[in-house]
Protein 1
Amino acid sequence: KQEVTQIPAALSVPEGENLVLNCSFTDSAIYNLQWFRQDPGKGLTSLLLIQSSQREQTSGRLNASLDKSSGRSTLYIAASQPGDSATYLCAAVGQGGSEKLVFGKGMKLTVNP
Amino acid sequence: GAVVSQHPSRVICKSGTSVKIECRSLDFQATTMFWYRQFPKKSLMLMATSNEGSKATYEQGVEKDKFLINHASLTLSTLTVTSAHPEDSSFYICSALQGPYGYTFGSGTRLTVV
């Protein structure tokens, strides 16, 4: 059974810092891994999707990497801004035919001005 | 990009009544949609997988007679909370799978049962 872990559960940083958010998964046989952002009381916004054959994806100040052999993915946020404050979730989809997303519990990020 | 529209965003209903939540894929066809429930400060809990033209698959512990799911077309899935009670108050979110492009989520529905 796939388990996804995000540590730490919360992070508070000053504006301008470069951040690394960690995500680990127990079953390396994943189809893809997706990073999301959730603002309070809102739905999820997809940030980056990494297919199992890829090692990283980039969008603006965001870069996500995937290392299946070690069961890890990282989300790198460059030059953090107060508007980046949100909860970040990673989720994995297994290769076993199920299309279910398995979520981590999320990491609440606060970027202080 | 892909858009999933979810309505209503907020609903307050009386105990014992039923509430319907709609989830529409606006610019793509979604043969599979998912319904989640989220408790305060918790991650998402998958309730059921909705497949167009067939019965939904419910996760263990989810009452299928209370949470009715209908996926009658490739762009619309509905979740009906029947005979709602205060403990059904929660944040409900749908998502749709867009092939290899990943999952797109609706904006969520805050249900309050009084």
Note: Residues 18 and 82 of chain B are 4 Å apart (CA to CA).
Protein 2
Amino acid sequence: AQTVTQSQPEMSVQEAETVTLSCTYDTSESDYYLFWYKQPPSRQMILVIRQEAYKQQNATENRFSVNFQKAAKSFSLKISDSQLGDAAMYFCAYRAGSYQLTFGKGTKLSVIP
Amino acid sequence: DVKVTQSSRYLVKRTGEKVFLECVQDMDHENMFWYRQDPGLGLRLIYFSYDVKMKEKGDIPEGYSVSREKKERFSLILESASTNQTSMYLCASGPVFGRDSSYNEQFFGPGTRLTVL
């Protein structure tokens, strides 16, 4: 069974600084997709960034980028120039050919003004 | 914009009551999902549906059932609510799995925080 591990239950970052959230996963599949979702307090979960396993280039969306290490089964999220609005729960998720996403347990990110 | 809506943001029920949580999506997605979210446990899949009237058990289906009579609507049913079902319930929808990555994410509703007394 696929598993997704987020080893940092909580993290904090100073406003305008950079922070990296870690995620590792276990799979025997060669073709799969990885996601980072953001859930702000009392608000809807939204997709931050996605990465296709068959692509070597790391995905980037504005201040958000990933470091995808396929051999190491690692998928970390880097947030640059952190803003107060980045404070949220962040979930790493995995999907292969099945219907469902497998989620990690989440990392709560606090942004210090 | 994809929109997934859930019938209630907050719900308080008594032990033993039958509870219905409704979810509606407006993007013609084939797949719909019900998750339960608890602190420290992340999101756990209860049930999902890949077509009208079709359903599959997820990781924690005990105590729950689902109904999908129309493509856009997916209901979660707690036949006899218990206190250990107090939780946040998230509905999600998504299209069929495909090579194009834009078709592989799930879109979430705002969640229903259910309290069973």
Note: The mean pLDDT of chain A is 93.
